[in-house]
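User: Structure tokens for this complex, please. No commentary.
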Amino acid sequence: MTLSTMLHTMSAGMLRTCGIFILTLIGSLPLGMIVALLRKSRFALVRGIVRVYISIIRGTPLMLQLLVWYFGPFYLFNWNIGSWRFPALIIGFVVNYAAYFAEIYRGGIESIPVGQHEAAEVLGFTKTQTFMRIILPQVIKTILPSVTNEVITLVKDTSLAFTLAYQEVFSLSKQISASQSSFMPFLIAGIFYFIANYVVAFIMERIEKAMNYYK
Amino acid sequence: MILEMNHIEKHFGDLEVLKDISFGVDSGEVVSIIGPSGSGKSTLLRCATFLETIDGGEIIYMGDKAAHMNDQGQAVYVSHQELRRFRSYYGLVFQQFNLFPHYSVLKNLTDAPIHVQHRDRSEAEETAMELLGKMGLADRADAYPYQLSGGQQQRVAIARALAMKPQILFFDEPTSALDPELTGEVLNVIRQLAEEKMTMVVVTHEMSFAKAVSNRVIFMDGGLIVEQGDPAEVFDHPKEDRTKQFLRVFER
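Assistant:
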């Protein structure tokens, strides 16, 4: 196998890796906010459920969670899971990352001084207006460094998709390396992850700078 | 009467912070509330602005009851929706300014008029610029709060409250968070507002300011109004021992 065929085969895996990455962010960034708000719900039952969810997600390996999402429906309900692989994968990632983002959001929301809420309240803003106009923009600025960290971890975590035999770049590099007795696929995968994270860091730094117009 | 607070009671757990406080504020009046820390004066202001809920008593703005007493003597508020209507009657200036750091000075002044009072943007901006001019900050409209000194920030906060065109303005120790050399500029603004007959209630530790600017002084201690009246009377000829004791500390 020449280097160019190898690259060509692996590029399909790179696309799939990017797919997992983007879909996970699209799902988990907003879901995390909903979870964070539910955690502050006035109903104790809702708060309790959310707390259990977060502690399970944080207390068990993502790899195990992926296996449960994929095989669970078969063992529990005897469903046919033939085309379930990709949905299970994305659900597993989204549900996992939403829990982590929720904790970041919660920390950010709690870090905003109570005076900001009070000033908005006295000015007559509704609760929703206060959150959307006053609190959230400040939360986003405070949590950006933690979010960057989490997003970089996600780039690397996409490789866990190999547990469900999903053909993303890490699975492919293992397969090709074994069949071709070559070290090259690992090198290519490593460079790919590195560049991907470099791009992530670059973009996040840009966003952080753009938010620097106030302190 | 702009504001009437009758038989106000407030406790935090077992601690009684306000015990049967009654007072009213007439249009154009400037009332200073003084007293030792823990006397309940800030809590009283927070109750008047609905940041704290009272346990007993009634709050009336412009003859309109925001909270009344039921048969058991407990305070009952109007609905949340109606309460928002009352918020347009008053403004509050905080000790810590509490400006919105992500907004420019101008946006701090126009955001609520536009999105709460649904006023026209150009009208809101015109009003805001006028107020900033009055505060001597017309050239800082595009600055962000972190670029301003404490005294400037507090003047912006006063302008932000005035931009809502309130009937009454409350100040919660407006100069306590400022360096001594910056208190003057804030007090001058309040003095100027007093001359324009703005109705104000000022919780303060600035005794000479309270004496010079207010029409009435209320001395609070232990959750009670101990003494109130003409500032010259209260400061120069206090009747109550506790008032004398408190003022003596300040003379030293």
